[in-house]
Amino acid sequence: MTPAIALAQAAARNAHDWVREFVSFSLFHLLTVCVFGGTMLAACRIGRGFGDLSREARFRRTWGWVVIAYQSYYTLGYLFPRTLYFPKAFSWEESLPLQLCDLAAFVAGAAMVWQTRWLRTLLYFWGIGLSTQAFFTPTLRTGLGSAHYWMFWIGHTMIVGSAVYDIVVRRYRPGLRDLGVAVGLTIAYAFVAVGTNTILDRSGLLAPGVVSNYGYLGNTRPVNPTIIDDLGSWPGRIFKLGGIVMLDFVVLWGVWRVAAIVRRRPAAE
C-alpha cells in the first residue's frame, strides 16, 4: 500500500468518525467552534452595517422570532417526539425544558425582539457567563450525521450569538442593578432545578440507576469532561458551582466598570 492510499484511507476513516461521533478537544471540536463562532461574528457585522436603525430593528426582531420558533420546536420535540419526528424519546430526566440553556434560548429570542432591560441582562449573564461553556466543554457525543449535533450547536449559537450581538451592535453594558437582577434570578433558577431533581429522583418516574440532572445540579456528572468533574462530591459541589457562577457574574459586570475608569483617566503628559 502506498503512503498516498494510506493517507486517503485514514482521512476517510476520520471523516466517517466525524459523521458518527463528536469528541471534545479534537480537531472536529475546534472546527465546529470556528464555524459557529464565525457565524456570530458575521451576524454582528451585518447588524453594524445597517445605517438605518429601522432596518437593524427588523433584522434583530426577525432573528429573535426565529430563535423563539426554533426553541419552541426543540422544546415540543422533547415533549412530543413522535408527533414532531424528533430524534430523541421522552424521558423525565432530560425532556423537561428546565436546563438553563433551554430557558436562555427563550430569553435570547425575547431580548432580541423586545429589548427589555431585564431580558437583556439575563441574556448577557446567562449567554456570555454560562452558555459559552457549551463551546468549551460540550455535553455532546454524536457527530455531523446526527440531528442532535445540529440542534445542540445551533441552539447554543443562537444564545451566545444573541448575547454577542447585543454587546457589539446594541451596546449593552451591565450596571450594578443588572448584576443584582442576574444573581437573584439565577439563584431562583437553581432552587427550581435542585427541587425538580430531588422530586424526580424520589418519584419513581426514572429508570433504575438514572438520576435527574437539570441545571447540572443533580447527584451525577455529564458524560463528557466538564468543570463539574473537579468540584468534588454532591451536594457540596452545588455550593462550589454557585460560587464560581457568582464570581463569573461579578467579573462580567466589573470588566465594564474597569473599562469605564480607564476611558475617563486623563492621558499622561
Describe this structure in words.
- The protein is mainly alpha-helical and about 270 residues long.
- The chain has one domain (about 15-265).
- It has helices spanning about 5-20, 25-50, 55-80, 80-85, 100-115, 115-130, 135, 145-170, 175-205, 235-265.
- Helix 6 crosses helix 8 (about 145-170) and helix 6 (about 115-130) packs across helix 9.
- The protein is globular, with a radius of gyration of 21 Å.
- It starts with a helix and ends in a 5-residue tail after the last helix.
- The relative contact order is 0.11.
- The mean pLDDT is about 90.
| Apparent shape | globular
The residue-averaged pLDDT reads 89
Rg measurement, Å:
21 Å
Q: What ranges have pLDDT less than 50 throughout 5 or more consecutive residues?
A: none
Q: List how many beta strands DSSP finds.
A: 0
Outline the biggest β-sheet: none
Features:
269 residues, mainly alpha, 0% strand
What layout of secondary structure does this protein have?
Blueprint lengths: L2 H18 L6 H23 L3 H27 L1 H4 L15 H15 L2 H15 L1 H4 L10 H22 L7 H28 L32 H29 L5
Task: Please summarize what this structure is.
The chain has 269 residues and is an all-alpha fold.
